[in-house]
Every structure is written in structure tokens, then in C-alpha cells.
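=== RUN LOG ===
request id: a7f3
mode: sequence -> structure
chains: 1
length: 390
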Amino acid sequence: MAFITTSDDEIYYRIDGPADAPVVILSHSLGLDHGMWDAQAADLARHVRVVRYDTRGHGASAAPAGDYTIEQLGRDVLALADALGIPAFAFCGLSLGGMIGQWLGIHAPERLTHLVLANTTARVSEPAAMDARRRAVLEGGMAAVVETAMSRFFTPVSLQRDSPVVAAARRTLLASSAVGYAGCCAAIRDMDQRASIARITVPTLVIGGDLDVSMPWDPHGHTLASSIPGATVVRLPTAHLSNLEQPRSFSAALFRFLLPRPADALAAGMPVRRAVLGDAHVDRSIAGATDLTREFQALITRFAWGTIWTRPGLEHRTRRLLVLAMTAAMGRWEEFRLHLRSGIAHELEWVDVEEVLLQVAVYAGVPAANTAFHIATEERAATRGESAPH
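=== RESULT ===
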């Protein structure tokens, strides 16, 4: 396990993604831990370096007794970044994490490249309620607040389904340190950043949940969006934990905000084309281009590879499977064989092909699947140095 030690705290963190990529730090809500970002970390780590950490008083981080402050929690983030040698980073915080993000945007703007504030506020509506929650956990443990917190975390529909994500949030909440939770309740109770958020100049995305009864858009998200110059807004049909109820939509919002589309689609497309189809095939295509076909080669590199395959919403493995299904369904057998061969040579396995072609049989017809299975059988035999059965 990875920790950094400050003068009065020990902070747990984990890192995913390329070592040389831009950094995004993810900061969780009150009562959960870094695990609430599992889906976003998996999505983002293909493109950026993701640093997740447990806020003071949560998870594997230390939980010193007493009241905490938002400044203290913000300085923990800076200490973590300093210890990891990260001079500048994007920061995404939800709820308590978003309050920490506001403090960073106000007091350490030179450290931020982007700021995402999700389901959060500059000032809670009822500070006394946070103090009541603080006292409740100190007297009765986390069980004293779990049902109230869960009813705010998720919509009634999500709670009724009791999905693994909901069950995991409940377990994490119950396992949290009452002392640490209470310390963060005090930080939220005492926080008022309304007069300062207009000083945030870093590019900011404000995400709100339309069904968030804990911090409804009006006034909380609206205040942030209208006060921070140039803020971008995304609203999702979720309760408080928008990244857990709509994980793909949340990740898509981060992609659009953090990852600009390539300015030169032709230049961006060529390495992707080579990675997917292989250097040998691409070299043959380029060498075989004529005055008649050269512009077409540029078009497919720019449009297919530089515009579509570079979109971060689907990883390449999923796009490969989609191409196999569509080319089989449409009878584009030359393309099917090409993508089958290149997929197996890189990241696909024959069990993947089997599942896709069974799907083709159901939705595009048995004849299409029959031909596709025949081609797949030939290609598998060739990879094994065998003769294809007749």
C-alpha cells in the first residue's frame, strides 16, 4: 500500500495510467473512499495518469481526532502532489471533494490545469445539520447515519435495485472511521466559500444531479456555475453520487472537458491506424496508393482513424468487436477478415470472436454468422499452422 506522511497525517493513494501522461487527481465524497472512482479511473487511465487518494479521516488514511478544516484537506492534496513530484494537475472532486477543489482553485490556482466540481456547494444549506451528523456518529457510530446518507447518495430506484455499486457504498460507509467522518463533518459545517469562488480562473466544469436532494442544483450548483467565470455545466439524472449512478455519462463529461479533440485528425489517425491494423498492412496500403486512391487513403485515415477511433468513450477492444459484428452483419467479408486478423494479432481472443458471431447469428441471421464462422475457422487454423477443416 502507498502512503505519504505529512506533519499530522498519513494519506493513502494509488496511481493508474501512463507515467508520462498529464495527471488527474480524484477526490471522493464524505463517507466513501477512493474506490468510488473505480469506473472513472478505468476509463481515464487509458489517456491520463490517475491519482486517487483517501481523504483525511477516510479509508486507509489516518483519522486524527478533532475537527478538520477545508484548508487542511486542501493542503493534504498539495502535500500529496508535492510528494509525488506533480507540479500541476487536473482535479475532480465530488461533494466534499468538490469543496476541496474550490479551495484549491481559490488558493492554489497555479497548481491546477482543470477543475471539476461535482454535486457540491460553496456553503451547505444547514450547517447545524452537519453538526448534528457529527455528534450522531461520535455517539452512535456510522450505523447512526447510514440510512440517511444512503437515501441522499442514490435515487429510490437505485436503492431498490441494490446493485453491487450501492452495496459497496453501504459497506464502505459503515466501515468508515466515525472519528474521521466527524472531523470532515466539522470541515463542511464551517466552510463558506461563496465570497471567494469568483476568484477561480482555472477552466472549471460543474456537474450536478437533477435528483440530488442533498445538494440540489438550485441553489448549490447554480451558484458555482454562475459565480465561476466561464464555467461549463453538465447536469445528469442522478442523486448525489452522480459518478456511481451514471458512470459512463460522468466519464464522458470528463473526457469532453479534459481531453481536447485532436486538431490534426490526419496526424492523429495514422498511429491509431497502425496500432489497430498493424504496420505491415498500413505500409502496403500506403505503398500501393496511386494518384486515384491517395486522397481516399488520407480520407479514411482522417475520418475513420483520426476522428472516430480516437474518441475516448470506447476502448479499442470494444471498437474491434463492434467492427467485427457490423462487417459480418453487412457481409463486408474483406474488412471482416482484415479486422479479425489484426484483432487476434493484438488484443482479441477466439472466445471474443465466438461471442460476437453468436450475437450476429441472433440479430443479423444465421447465414451471415455461418460465413463469418467459416472465415474465423480459416484464420484460426492459419494462426496455428493447421489446415482449415472443410
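=== NOTES ===
The first helix runs from residue 38 to 44.
Residues 321 and 355 are 10 Å apart (CA to CA).
=== END ===
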